[in-house]
Amino acid sequence: MFKPYATAATFAITAVPSLLQFVIPGLEPALMRDPAAIRGGEWWRLVTALVVQDGGLWGTLFNLASLAVLGYCAERSFGPARWLALYAAGALAGEISGYLTNDPGAGNSIAVCGLAAGLALAAAERLDRSLGAFYAVVLAASLLSDLGTWGVVAMIALLAAGAQLVGRRERVPLWLLVAVPVAVAAVLIARLDLHGFALLGGIVVGWTLQATYSSTSRRTEPLV
């Protein structure tokens, strides 16, 4: 029976301080990514920023739920070692870009971006690939939330369209599932959004996994 040890351990490590920050004042500021503090020697913030959240309660719950779902799918598809490579790729790309662009913040969503991109590009099952692509759509839709009423309408329409990637996944060509995170990453990077760099990190590792699977013929069953 499959047991997602890497996902469960990372979820626990992330969830505890993420929830404690709502009852312990100052916990998030003490652990968040602060470029000025990092330059002053507090380099550990590049890691601790992944276990607290800056998106409020709903943002925290969404990030934890995304980690649980995408983490489970990625670990089932790739195994714990490759899971960690994808998670680390998103985290590293996101944290470094945040430091270089002087963007303070916190959250594990950049690490989840690595998992999502890896799933969309190289997962063994079509459902997992579609979930990875849908996560990228959610990131793109979030850009529209600050554009007033029409922005909210466009956001809902985009999410509805993105849901078709999952609901009608048998009819969606695999190239589209790959193109979605690549396109979203390009848009987000142009806006200096850290999630774009994190997706890019996952895309690089995901392509590596895809090439490995193809060369070793490890994928013996059709995508379903």
Describe this entry's structure for a reader:
With 224 residues, the protein is mostly helical. It has helices spanning 5-20, 27-31, 35-39, 45-48, 56-78, 80-100, 109-122, 126-142, 148-167, 174-190, 194-216.
State the order of secondary-structure elements, H for helix, E for strand: HHHHHHHHHHH
Overall 3D shape: globular
- What structural class do you assign from the helix and strand content? mainly alpha
Tally of extended strands?
0
Mean residue pLDDT? 93
Low-confidence stretches: 217-222
Largest sheet descriptor: none
Q: Total helix count? A: 11
User: Rg from C-alpha positions?
Assistant: 17 Å
β-strand amount: under 5%
Helical content class: over 70%
Question: Span between N and C termini?
Answer: 20 Å
Question: Could you write a compact summary of the structure shown?
Answer:
This protein has 224 residues and is mostly helical. Helix content is 74%, strand content 0%.
